[in-house]
Every structure is written in structure tokens, then in C-alpha cells.
């Protein structure tokens, strides 16, 4: 019965279930958000090529994708709604005290989503009702709004990592909130660019992997080749840039959040000429069973093999983040990122030399798993960011434990969210599979034919 | 009007838009539920689906808009309401998820059993979600949400007579709006018999809503005295306007002037909500937290006001475009026809 007690308890016991509920809802939403950011651009590009070359196979591909986009957009919108409730339901201490500082980007985000939702509706509904030119133009606001929305939300998260744009008085109350300034803290640009590129990698690799599976099953017609080629090209172009941006963001973390960096590297002692550790388990200030690349960390952070990297010993013990989670998540992101870079290079090389896809089945198998890989890398990146910030919800200012709602029975929410999202995930998979197979189905924003019009 | 009032007013306008547009979408789900067996209800369901398909997502964002403006401009009151009322709010969010997902997915599944399952999920959550939102409004309006984090009773704040009244009225109003809106849609689509059926439904729900509203006066008197005093005092002219508009809408339905009936019905619903706001003014949370006390600092409110004004300039033309496009008949410019002559049929033509 300990479990039941745990769930029904109020107060401080709410912390763990609330964190897990938040993490699950965000981790689910972000996958769909990636499609909201990157898919419109890929779909419109494909449609444009189709029209320009008079290639109905490409416009057909774009239409199929547009329908999938509609389904994914609907799932993203409803899961985002739950998130905006949860910000208040789970973290009133955050909203109450800092809502006026960092709530503002969410308002702008609200407008961006509004525009995106309107034009997703226009784009799908207008497929047979607008001229090709008007139709593609109607997609422009959708593409721009997706990018803007991502910027605003990520800037809110970047604010939690590096709060700026306000002062605290002697009692710790916010005075002089400057919401515009709060949106442009030191983490905002690296985090946004990194997330934006991640969205293209997730979407590109995931869509390509669907067609790779089809080709492995013997459907090697032009339709499938194009379905693989276009998104894979996008992802392959983005991947090397993303690795470079990863270096930028790691430096931003080193400058602003040394405790997070130390946890990412599972490094206890402040060291000069620090090595880069891969894997391993951290216990009592020591990392065991890890593979170490000498000097690599100092090189990466300071571009100097003897640079000093601060360790966790500099941070009071009660401010240590959960090191193992952060370290392994970070390793997973970087490891998968490197693997995806190799895949992109393989594809790029063969294309450059021969103007065709690599022919071996191993290539298709690699593409088939790349989609899941990109998703895992992105989730691992977020776990690095969010768990690495612990125990702070607002870095160095507000502890997560002080922000959680004390309402009794809050823990049931976690159970409910687990159930709801499990069911939802199953159904989403079923529906997307059907969309991938047939062209006869309709997206939620498309209207069925009116009687007598067909 | 102060800056805080202007910002809160903008959030309230968002709430009105959500009640009218989102509300009608929910009501569509309610009629879907009551449309009868698979075969008999087929045409009704198709009509409902056609009329909310392209717009429901945009309509839904009004809710997000209200939330984010409140949490930025009135953070403390928002945190108080969200924590005390977290149960109905979570249930409403689940309803939104179930509804959106079921609506989106049911078109893509082919087996009748799956379709029926998603259809039922869509319809049932269309019933529950407005009920919980109505209960939330009832909790706030009857003064059961005190300022402070989780300061109110997490159960009794929404399990009480006023919340029950609010929930019931919300469902009825949604159903009524949907029925009125669908009359005109059915006629435009050339389905006069469906238009007649929805006209009857609109008239019946109008009568039921009126009766519940009357009974509700007694409930409020006993359970929410402050609100009651406000409604019968300062709010009385607004309430009277609501009754007049309701009666006018019935007259227009009886004479089958559907487009005008839409507008007048919208006015009737708007005035109910405005009545609530007027009755509660100047308090955000009864019995003591006023708009000015709840409002955040000046620079945040200014930023909000600027963003709201600039956003409206982008948003309103976009919404108008969506709704007008949506009234346009399909296939005026079929893509198949616009493809270059001689091109092989695309995969779209395969189905
Ligand atoms: C496909 C996805 C993907 C890939 C391949 C990478 N990342 Fe990443 N990473 C993300 C997706 C991501 C992310 C999910 O988008 C995060 C979470 C928060 C953020 O802004 O981006 C992130 C966060 C994140 C952070 C934490 C930032 C913070 O807490 O402020 C660091 C230091 C890096 N990344 C570094 C890297 C490096 C050095 C990579 C080189 C291989 C790399 N990432 C590849
Ligand atoms: C940009 C938007 C985001 C915002 C505003 C945000 C906000 C929050 C908040 C308020 C919490 C709870 C407090 C805390 O634990 O510090 C949290 C925790 C968490 N979030 Fe995020 N988050 C965002 C994106 C994401 C994404 C996309 C993921 C993907 C997995 C994620 C993963 C997590 C995890 C794992 C936790 C729990 C950390 C822990 O308590 O150990 N976040 N986030
Ligand atoms: C890094 C984190 C996030 C990113 C990049 C992101 C991005 C997006 C995007 C692009 C959409 C458009 C819909 C779609 O494409 O599916 C969306 C929907 C939404 N998101 Fe997120 N989001 C993030 C986190 C959050 C958080 C933390 C919240 C709220 C607290 C939130 C609330 C919403 C809401 C309410 C919607 C629905 C809007 C609509 O109905 O169109 N998102 N998100």
C-alpha cells in the first residue's frame, strides 16, 4: 500500500510525481512539435518541386505528407494544451512568482500557434480549392509561425536556465520585470538554434525511415525512393551543422551553468587538461568503468588542452544534479549525433560520386533506425538540459521543491497521464501506419465531399 | 479603463470567442452523440464533421490564448485557480485530448468498430469537457477559489450547486449554438431536411436552456449570494438583453432566418458571460481580490497590451480568411485538372 500512500499524499511528496508528469507530457509533446516546426517546410518544398517539374508523383507525395502533418499537428495541439494547464497545476510557485517575467514569450507563442493552426487548416482544406500558387503561398505563414513558436517556447526554457530581465527585492519578490529582456538571455540563441535543427533532424530521419522500411520490404518504386530521398537530404544537410551548434551550446553551458557541465561529464574534481569520459557509473564523487579520451574536454570547452574545467566539488552537495542521468543522457545524445553524422556522410559521399542512393541493404537498414535514433538523441538532449538544471527550476533562484503544488492527491495525475498517453501513442501509431499505406484517407482538417459535388 | 482592465478585458474577449467558436465545436460533438445509430446518423455526422473539420483547431487556440494572458498578466490569481481547481482542469484537458485525437483519427481508420469507438470518444468528451469548464467557472463565480496556492478545497471548489449549474448550462449552450450554426450549414449544403432537424433541436435546447437558467437563479441565490446580488443589481440590464436576444433568436429560427439567428444567438450567449463579468467586477477572485490587486507590474502589462494589439492585426485577417475560404465550394480548381496534360496519373488518382 506504500504506492497508494505515495500517490495520494500532498505537499512535498508531490515533487517526484509532478516532475515525472511534466517530463512525460513534455517528452511526448516535443516529438509532435518537431513535426510542427520542420514538416511544413519539407512538405511545401516537395509540393513546389512537383509543380515546377510537372511531376504529379511529387505533388502526390506532398499531399500524403500534408495529411500526416494534419494528424501530427492535431496531436501536438492537444498535448500542448495539457502542458499549458500543467504549468499552473504543477508549478504554481513558478508561475505565481515569475509568470510576469517569463510568461510573456508564451503569449507570443500563443499567437504563433494561432497563425499556424489557421494556416494548417487553410493548407489542407485548400488543397483542391486554391490555385497552386495561392496554395503554396498560404503555407508561408504556417512555416514562419512554426519557427517563431519554437523560438518563443525555447526562450522561456532558456530563461529558466539563465534567468534575466528582472530584479529581486530584499524579500525575494520580483521588481522591475522586463519581459522583452527576459526573452534574450545568454542561453536563448544557442538553445533555439540547436532545437530548431533538431526538429529538422527528427522529422527528416523519421520520415525517411518510413520509406526505408518500405524499400526493405521490396517497394522500390520511384515514389518510395523520392519519399526517402527528400527528407534524408534535409536531415543529412542539417546534421553536421547541428554538431557544430552542439559545440556552441556546450560552451554556453560551461560559461553559465558549471554544475550542469560537471554533471554532463560526471566530473567531481576541478581539473586542467580534463579528459572526456564516455559511459560509466558515478558514485561518491568518482566515475567508474568509463572510457576516457585524454584532454578532449578541455579542448572542446576552451579550445586549449590545458584549460581548467570546474568539477562538482565546487558546488554545494545539496545543489548537485542527478549525475548519472545527466551524464548518460548527454553521452547518448552526442553518441547518436555522431552516428547520424556518419550516416549522412555515407549518403553524401555516394550521392556526390554517383548521383544515387547507396545500394546495399545495410544503408536502408541504417536509415530505417535513424528516425528513432534522432528522436532518442533529442529526448536525451532535453533530459540533459532539464535534469542538469536540478535542483533548480529557475537556476540559482527557485528550487523545484519550492515551486511544486501542495494540493492533495496530485499524484493521481501522473497515473492518469501515463494511461492517457499510452493509449494515445498506440492509436497515433495505428493511424499513421494507415496514412503511410493508403492515399484514400482524410486528414482531420480536410472536409469530406459535400453531397452531390462528386 | 486601467491598463490591467484592458488586458483582462482582452483575455475575456478570448474567452467569449472560445465559448462561441470552440463551444459550437463541442456542441457538434454532443449532436454527434445523439445522432442515432450508425446508419441513421450517418448524414448528420457527416454534416457535423464537414462544418468543424478545418476550423476546430484554430477555434481551440482561443483557450490557450486565455490561459497564457492570464498567467502572464495575473500570475497569482492564475496559480490560485489552477491549483485549487486542478481536478476539473485536468479532466477538461484529458477531454480535449480525447476529443481532438478521436476527431483527427476517426477519418483515418476504416473498420466500423474502430470508427465507432473513436466516434464515441469524440462525442462523449464533447459532453464532459464543457461540463468541467462550466464547473470551473461556477467555482470561481461562487467565491470558492481564494487567493493563495491550493488554498481552496480541491473537491468542494467544483463539486457544488453553482458549479453543477455552470457545467449544465455550458453543455446546453454549446449544444444550442451548434444546432443554430448547423441549420445554416445544412441549408447551404443543400440538405433541407437536416436543416429542419437542427432547427427543431435548436428550439428544444433553447427551451431547456431557458428553463435551467430560470431554475439557476434560485440556485445562485442560495449558493452564490455575491454573484446573485451582482447579477440582479448592476448586471440586470445585461441579463435582460440576454433574455431578449434569446427570444429574438427563437423568433428567427421559427421564421427560418438562419444567418441572422446565428448572430442573435451569439449575442445571447455573449451577454450571459458578460453578465457574469459585470456581476463579479471589480473582483477577479471573490470575495476580495480585485483586478488591480491581481495585476502584475506595469512593464509586463504594457508589453502584453502591445503584443495583444499587434497580434490582433495579424490574427483577425487570418481568421477571416480561414472562415471565408471555408465557405467556398470544393474543387473549383481541382489539382488533377491543373496537372500538366499527358502526365501519368499521380498516386492521388490511384484510390
Ligand atoms: C537530434 C538531436 C540532437 C543531436 C544530434 C545533438 N543534440 Fe544537443 N540537444 C538537443 C538535440 C540534439 C536538444 C533536444 O534539442 C537540446 C535540449 C535543449 C536544447 O536546447 O537542445 C540539446 C541540448 C544540448 C545541451 C544542453 C544545453 C543546455 O542545457 O542549455 C548540450 C551541451 C548539447 N545539446 C550538446 C550537443 C553536442 C555537443 C552534440 C554533438 C554531437 C549534440 N548536442 C547533438
Ligand atoms: C521549452 C519548453 C520547456 C519548458 C518551459 C519546460 C519546463 C519545465 C518545468 C517547469 C519543469 C519542472 C520543474 C523542474 O523539474 O525543473 C520541467 C522538468 C522537466 N522537463 Fe522541461 N520544459 C521544456 C521542455 C522540455 C522538453 C521538450 C523535455 C523533453 C523530454 C523536457 C524534459 C523535462 C524533464 C525530464 C523534466 C524533469 C526534470 C527533473 O525533475 O529531474 N522539458 N520542465
Ligand atoms: C521546446 C519545447 C517546445 C517546442 C519546440 C514546442 C513547439 C510547438 C509547436 C511547433 C506547436 C505547434 C503545433 C504542432 O506543431 O504540433 C506546439 C503546440 C503547442 N504547444 Fe508546444 N512546444 C514546446 C513546449 C511547449 C510547452 C512547454 C508548452 C506549454 C507550457 C507548450 C504549449 C503548446 C500548446 C498549448 C500548443 C497548441 C497550440 C495549438 O493549438 O496550435 N509547448 N508546440
Structure description:
The complex is a heterodimer of chains A (454) and B (351). Chain A is built from 15 helices and ten strands. Chain A has 454 residues and is mostly helical. Chain A has a domain at 12-234 and 391-449. In chain A, helix 9 packs across helix 12 (323-354). The radius of gyration of chain A is 23 Å and the shape is globular. Residues 448-454 of chain A have low confidence and may be disordered. Chain B is built from 14 helices and two strands. The longest helix of chain B has 32 residues, at 192-223. Chain B is 76% helix and 1% strand. With 351 residues, chain B is mainly α. Chain B has a two-stranded antiparallel ribbon with strand order 1-2. The N and C termini of chain B lie far apart (59 Å). At the A-B interface, helix 3, helix 4, helix 5, strand 2 and helix 15 of A face helix 2, helix 3, helix 4, helix 5 and helix 13 of B. One protoporphyrin IX containing FE (HEM) sits between chains A (29-30, 32-33, 35-37, 73, 76-77, 80-81, 83-84, 87, 113, 116-117, 146, 149-150, 153-154, 157, 195) and B (57, 60-61, 64).
Q: Which ligands does the model contain, each kind named once?
A: CIS-heme D hydroxychlorin gamma-spirolactone, protoporphyrin IX containing FE
Strand neighbour order, sheet with most strands of chain A: 1-2
Helix content of chain B: over 70%
Strand content of chain B: under 5%
**Helical element count of chain A?**
15
Radius of gyration of chain B (Å): 22 Å
* Element-by-element helix/strand order of chain B: HHHHHHHHHHHEEHHH
Amino acid at each position: 500500500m506504500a504506492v497508494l500512500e505515495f500517490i495520494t499524499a500532498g505537499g512535498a511528496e508531490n515533487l517526484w510525481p509532478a516532475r515525472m508528469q511534466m517530463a512525460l507530457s513534455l517528452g511526448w509533446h516535443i516529438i509532435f512539435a518537431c513535426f510542427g516546426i520542420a514538416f511544413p517546410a519539407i512538405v511545401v518544398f516537395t509540393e513546389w518541386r512537383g509543380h515546377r517539374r510537372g511531376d504529379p508523383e511529387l505533388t502526390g507525395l506532398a499531399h500524403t505528407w500534408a495529411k500526416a502533418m494534419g494528424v501530427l499537428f492535431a496531436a501536438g495541439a492537444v498535448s500542448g494544451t495539457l502542458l499549458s494547464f500543467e504549468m499552473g497545476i504543477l508549478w504554481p510557485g513558478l508561475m505565481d512568482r515569475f509568470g510576469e517575467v517569463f510568461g510573456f514569450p508564451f503569449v507570443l507563442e500563443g499567437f504563433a500557434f494561432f497563425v499556424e493552426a489557421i494556416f494548417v487548416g487553410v493548407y489542407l482544406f485548400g488543397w483542391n480549392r486554391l490555385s497552386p500558387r495561392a496554395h503554396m503561398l498560404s503555407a508561408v505563414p504556417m512555416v514562419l509561425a512554426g519557427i517563431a513558436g519554437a523560438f518563443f517556447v525555447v526562450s522561456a526554457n532558456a530563461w529558466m536556465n539563465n534567468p534575466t530581465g528582472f530584479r529581486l527585492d530584499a524579500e525575494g519578490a520580483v521588481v522591475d520585470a522586463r519581459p522583452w529582456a527576459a526573452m534574450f538571455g545568454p542561453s536563448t540563441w544557442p538553445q533555439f538554434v540547436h532545437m530548431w535543427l533538431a526538429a529538422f533532424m527528427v522529422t527528416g530521419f523519421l520520415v525517411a525511415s518510413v520509406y526505408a522500411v518500405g524499400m526493405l520490404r521490396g517497394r522500390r518504386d520511384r515514389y518510395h525512393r523520392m519519399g526517402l530521398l527528400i527528407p534524408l537530404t534535409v536531415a543529412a544537410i542539417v546534421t553536421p551543422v547541428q554538431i557544430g551548434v552542439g559545440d556552441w551550446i556546450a560552451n554556453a553551458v560551461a560559461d553559465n551553468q558549471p554544475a550542469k557541465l560537471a554533471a554532463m561529464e560526471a566530473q567531481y574534481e576541478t581539473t586542467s587538461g580534463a579528459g572526456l569520459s564516455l559511459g560509466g557509473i558515478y558514485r561518491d564523487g568518482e566515475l567508474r568503468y568509463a572510457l576516457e579520451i585524454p584532454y578532449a574536454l578541455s579542448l572542446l570547452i576552451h579550445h586549449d588542452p590545458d584549460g581548467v574545467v570546474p568539477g562538482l566539488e565546487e558546488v554545494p552537495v545539496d545543489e548537485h544534479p542527478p549525475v548519472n542521468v545527466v551524464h548518460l543522457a548527454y553521452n547518448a545524445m552526442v553518441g547518436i549525433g555522431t552516428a547520424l553524422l556518419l550516416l549522412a556522410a555515407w549518403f553524401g559521399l555516394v550521392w556526390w560520386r554517383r548521383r544515387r542512393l547507396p545500394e546495399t541493404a545495410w544503408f536502408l537498414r541504417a536509415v530505417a533506425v535513424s528516425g528513432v535514433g534522432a528522436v532518442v538523441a533529442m529526448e536525451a538532449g532535453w533530459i540533459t538540459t532539464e535534469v542538469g538544471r536540478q535542483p533548480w527550476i529557475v537556476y540559482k533562484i527557485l528550487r523545484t521543491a519550492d515551486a511544486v503544488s501542495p494540493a492533495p492527491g496530485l499524484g493521481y495525475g501522473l497515473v492518469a497521464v501515463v494511461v492517457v498517453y499510452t493509449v494515445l501513442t498506440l492509436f497515433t501509431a495505428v493511424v499513421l501506419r494507415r496514412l503511410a499505406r493508403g492515399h484514400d484517407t482524410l486528414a482531420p482538417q480536410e472536409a469530406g465531399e459535400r453531397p452531390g459535388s462528386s | 479603463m486601467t491598463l490591467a482592465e484592458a488586458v483582462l478585458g482582452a483575455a475575456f474577449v478570448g474567452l467569449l470567442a472560445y465559448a462561441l467558436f470552440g463551444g459550437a465545436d463541442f456542441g457538434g460533438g454532443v449532436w454527434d452523440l445523439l445522432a442515432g445509430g450508425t446508419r441513421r446518423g450517418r448524414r448528420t455526422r457527416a454534416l457535423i464533421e464537414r462544418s468543424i473539420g478545418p476550423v476546430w483547431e484554430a477555434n481551440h487556440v482561443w483557450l490557450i490564448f486565455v490561459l497564457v494572458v492570464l498567467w502572464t498578466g495575473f500570475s497569482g490569481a492564475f496559480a490560485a485557480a489552477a491549483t485549487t481547481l486542478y481536478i476539473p482542469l485536468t479532466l477538461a484537458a484529458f477531454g480535449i485530448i480525447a476529443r481532438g485525437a478521436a476527431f483527427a483519427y476517426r477519418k483515418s481508420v476504416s473498420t466500423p468498430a474502430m470508427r465507432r469507438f473513436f466516434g464515441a470518444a469524440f462525442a462523449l468528451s464533447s459532453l464532459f469537457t464543457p461540463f468541467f469548464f462550466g464547473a470551473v467557472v461556477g467555482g470561481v463565480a461562487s467565491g470558492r477559489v481564494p487567493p493563495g496556492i491550493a488554498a481552496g478545497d480541491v473537491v468542494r471548489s467544483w463539486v457544488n450547486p453553482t458549479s453543477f449549474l455552470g457545467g449544465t448550462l455550458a453543455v446546453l449552450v454549446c449544444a444550442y449554438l451548434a444546432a443554430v450554426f448547423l441549420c445554416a450549414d445544412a441549408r447551404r449544403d443543400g440538405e433541407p431536411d437536416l436543416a429542419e432537424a437542427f432547427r427543431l433541436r435548436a428550439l428544444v435546447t433553447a427551451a431547456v436552456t431557458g428553463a435551467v437558467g430560470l431554475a439557476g437563479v434560485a440556485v445562485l441565490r442560495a449558493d452564490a449570494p455575491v454573484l446573485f446580488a451582482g447579477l440582479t443589481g448592476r448586471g440586470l440590464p445585461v441579463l435582460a438583453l440576454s433574455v431578449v436576444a434569446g427570444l429574438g433568436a427563437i423568433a428567427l429560427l421559427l421564421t427560418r432566418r438562419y444567418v441572422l439567428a446565428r448572430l442573435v444567438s451569439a449575442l445571447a450567449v455573449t451577454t450571459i458571460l458578460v453578465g457574469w463579468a459585470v456581476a463579479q467586477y471589480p473582483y477577479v477572485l471573490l470575495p476580495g481580490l480585485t483586478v488591480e490587486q491581481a495585476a502584475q507590474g506595469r512593464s509586463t502589462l504594457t508589453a502584453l497590451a502591445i503584443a495583444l494589439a499587434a497580434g490582433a492585426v495579424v490574427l483577425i485577417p487570418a481568421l477571416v480568411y480561414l472562415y471565408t475560404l471555408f465557405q467556398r465550394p470544393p474543387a473549383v480548381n481541382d489539382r488533377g485538372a491543373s496537372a500538366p496534360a499527358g502526365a501519368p496519373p499521380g498516386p492521388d488518382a490511384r484510390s
